[in-house]
Write a structure and sequence with these properties.
Layout: H1 2-10, H2 32-37, H3 43-68, H4 70-95, H5 104-127, H6 129-133, H7 136-143, H8 145-163, H9 169-198, H10 201-225, E1 229-231, E2 234-238, H11 239-260, H12 264-267, E3 271-273, E4 278-280, E5 292-295, H13 298-304, E6 308-311, H14 313-327, H15 330-342, H16 358-380, H17 385-394, H18 397-413
Helix pairs in contact: 4-5, 4-9, 5-8, 5-9, 9-10, 9-16, 10-11, 10-14, 10-16, 11-14, 15-16
Subcellular location: Membrane
GO biological process, one term: CDP-diacylglycerol biosynthetic process
EC number: 2.7.7.41
């Protein structure tokens, strides 16, 4: 019996967290030209200039992609998703590299493809119905999309079961969970980002810019005025930076929304034009983006000297978005800090000098994307006639005729249409 017990224990991986090997520290990816130019500065100011220069470069590239249009923004989101996924999976691979787990990396990327196929297939079915209707091969894929997605996932699931080996069962299931949590964090959230983009580019730009503004403002206020530690997970975060970032972000979001709300390119829903094979942003702006007159609260009238003020209704929503970005959004960063501390690493990667990996810069963005999607569905979005029409066009002619008769009967009962004479 004792021998059997030892054999059973030998088949289990009972190593504790203290047995986990450290992840190799990331290398310094700062360009040599910047190292030479900043060689005379202290480490604190050197990091300041590196972060500042790279931040301006990233913002410039971001503005260029905005100019190129919605499709390029979607490709950007997809690229960031893949890179973030790669960084998190690589940490797991490096930590447990000595175990030589079979098929771990291959299955991780296979599951990424499966989940992306499912989510982006749903997007194609919702927003590209007219395009799909013209191509028979796509009609088959869309009609059985969920079954195909499930079959692909089931294949990966069976491959994982077949890859199980003695002495590594516990670890393999741990890494299976690691992969799925990573998919939840990256793929589903990036899908919500694209869903927000289809509602109008302003729903994409204001939240993302608010998080960026809060990150920059909190860093600046913390750098110059920070004295009081905010949270143990991030020792460099201070209350001064947190509070300064909050007020700066709310003001920025309010002003930035005012400029974006004036242009159809930013406020109109993104729709696909099947005739031109292009994304279009042309519409009659909704009431959210039409100037309204508001009465100033009596308490503020004495301070501002105004009784009324003209503003876009969306600016009020921008305050809610900015508040979340500055008060709740940083908890995404704190969560990431806890994750990094658990594996004794400073950054997810060394992709961006002075900033770390892509995930280090987008840890708050994913949390923000979920909030914006919930906010839109809860308080903004109403019935969408154009989307409903696209769904009707996919139906068979007899189904369309049935819908027509039902709708006509309903409108006649309400007195909107006159009964047809017989």
């Amino acid at each position: 019996q004792e021998v059997d017990l030892e054999e059973r224990l030998g088949e289990l991986d009972l190593r504790s967290d203290s047995d986990i090997p450290d992840v190799p520290p990331p290398t310094d990816s700062t360009p040599e030209i910047l190292k030479r130019a900043l060689s005379g500065l202290s480490a604190r100011w050197k990091n300041w200039w590196i972060r500042g220069i790279l931040t301006l470069a990233m913002i410039s590239v971001f503005f260029l992609i905005i100019y190129l249009g919605s499709f390029m923004l979607m490709l950007l989101v997809l690229s960031i998703q893949v890179k973030c996924y790669h960084e998190i999976i690589t940490i797991g691979y490096r930590v447990y590299h000595s175990y030589d787990l079979p098929w771990f990396r291959s299955l991780s990327w296979y599951f990424l493809l499966c989940v992306n196929y499912f989510f982006y297939g749903e997007t194609v079915a919702d927003y590209f119905a007219t395009f799909v209707q013209r191509r028979e091969q796509l009609q088959f894929l869309i009609r059985y999309h969920r079954f195909i997605s499930f079959a692909l996932y089931l294949t990966g699931f069976c491959m994982f079961v077949l890859s199980l080996v003695k002495k590594h069962y516990r670890l393999q299931f741990y890494m299976f969970a690691w992969t799925h949590v990573t998919l939840l964090i990256t793929v589903t959230q990036s899908h919500l980002v694209i869903q927000n983009l289809f509602e109008g580019m302003i729903w994409f730009l204001v939240p993302i810019s608010s998080v960026i503004c809060n990150d920059i403002a909190a860093y600046i206020f913390g750098f110059f005025f920070g004295r009081t530690p905010l949270i143990k997970l991030s020792p460099k975060k201070t209350w001064e930076g947190f509070i300064g970032g909050f007020f700066s972000t709310v003001v920025f979001g309010f002003i930035f929304s005012y400029f974006l709300a004036q242009h159809q390119y930013f406020v109109c829903p993104v729709e696909y034009n099947s005739e031109t094979n292009r994304f279009v942003t042309e519409c009659e702006p909704s009431e959210l983006f039409q100037m309204q007159k508001y009465s100033v609260p009596p308490l503020l009238q004495a301070v501002l000297g105004w009784e009324t003020v003209n503003m876009y209704p969306f600016q009020m929503h921008s305050i809610a978005l900015s508040t979340f970005a500055s008060l709740i959004g940083p908890f995404g960063g704190f969560f990431a800090s806890g994750f990094k501390r658990a594996f004794k690493i400073k950054d997810f990667a060394d992709t961006i000098p002075g900033h770390g990996g892509i995930m280090d810069r987008f840890d708050c963005q994913y949390l923000m994307a979920t909030f914006v999607h919930v906010y839109i569905t809860s308080f903004i979005r109403g019935p969408n006639p154009s989307k409903l029409l696209k769904q009707l066009l996919i139906l068979q002619p007899e189904q369309q005729l049935s819908v027509y008769k039902t709708l006509k009967s309903h409108l006649v009962e309400k007195g909107i249409l006159q009964p047809s004479l017989r």
